Amino acid sequence: MQFCHQARIPQTALFFAEHGDYQLLVAIDPKKRQKFLKLNPQAIKIAVASGKRKAHRIKNLNNEWIVFELDFLYKAPKSTIFLLRKTFKSWLKLARKANL
Prior knowledge:
Elements: H1 2-7, H2 33-39, E1 47-50, E2 55-59, E3 65-68, H3 71-75, H4 81-97
Antiparallel strand pairs: 1-2, 2-3
């Protein structure tokens, strides 16, 4: 989170990484969230996923929850470093427009 802040990129950029980089992101069962947050006060909730909506709720820079489609992240081509950079720049543009 500190890196994202210092680099002036949205925290949600963490969703862009390949699966090996998700080591610091965790999914918590909503029923167990309060207990988890109590035991891990340094944890920061940045998004809520729901299969029902086919979208995700993400907290924007105004601390408001908005619905944001993440299909772009897994459908976008990332097979080469050139495509990865191009896709990331496109995603950053979308994220900034959404005030993430």
